[in-house]
Amino acid sequence: MSDTSEQVIKNLLSGQRNYFSSGETKNIDFRIKQLKILKSTIIKFEEKISSALYEDLHKSKEEAYLTEISIVLQEINNHIRHLRSWAKPEKVRTPWYLLPSAGKIIYEPLGLALIIAPWNYPFQLLFNPLIGAVSAGCCAVLKPSPYTPKTI
User: Fold this and answer.
1) For 78-96, how does the pLDDT look when each residue is reduced to its tens digit (9 = 90+)?
2) Does residue 4 lie in a domain region?
3) In 3D, which of 137, 131, 132, 138 has the Cα closest to residue 113?
4) Which three-class secondary structure state does DSSP give residue 112?
5) How far apart are CA 78 and CA 139, in angstroms?
6) Residue 1 lies in a domain
7) Given this model, what pLDDT does residue 2 score?
8) In a domain? residue 148
9) Domain coverage including residue 119
C-alpha cells in the first residue's frame, strides 16, 4: 500500500473542515439520512465485504457476518432509532439566583474525527466509530489498516 502525500492529506482535511463549517451536518434529518444510505450500501455490498474479509483474514462468510457486518448494521439501526432522543436538549437545574431563566445542555457536533482501524476487525472497527461520528454530526477521515488491503 502506498503512502499518501502530505499535500493530499492537507487537502482532504481542509475539505472536511470546510464541509463541517457549512453547518449541514448539524441537521438531525441529514444525519439519519446519511446513516440510512450507509446501511443500504453495506447491505448492497455485503458479499464483496465478506469476500474481502476472507482474502485478508480468512474469515468465513458466517464469521464475517457475525463478527463484523451484523454488528455494524445493528449499530446503525440503534443510532437511527435513538438519535433524535440523544440529540434533544437536556434540561438542567437553574440556581435560584438565575431565575426566571432556564438552563439546558445543547449537544452540538465538534468538528472532524480521525478514525484509524486495526487489522483484526478491519470493517467493524472502522465503521462503528464512523457511525458515531455521523450521528454526532461530525465529519470523519478514515484510515484503514495497511494489513487488510482488500477489506477497505
Assistant:
1) 999 999 999 999 999 999 9
2) no
3) 138
4) strand
5) 20
6) no
7) 59
8) no
9) 21-143
Torsion sign, CA atoms 108, 110, 112, 115: negative
C-alpha cell at 141: 477521515
- In the chain, the number of structural domains is 1
Q: What is the Cα Rg of the chain in Å? A: 19
Has residue 12 been placed in a domain?
Answer: no
User: What's the pTM value of the predicted model, to 2 decimals?
Assistant: 0.90
Would you place residue 61 in the very low, low, confident or very high pLDDT band (cuts 50, 70, 90)?
very high
CB contact set of 104 (below 8 Å; sequence gap of 6+): 89, 90, 91, 92
What is the CATH number for 25?
3.40.605.10
Report in angstroms the alpha-carbon separations of 134 from 40, 61, 112, 130, 145: 15, 27, 10, 6, 21
Residue 1: the pLDDT is 44
What are the pLDDT digits (tens) for 22-34?
A: 999 999 999 999 9
**Could you give the C-alpha distances from 112 to 20, 47, 67, 72, in angstroms and in order?**
8, 31, 27, 21
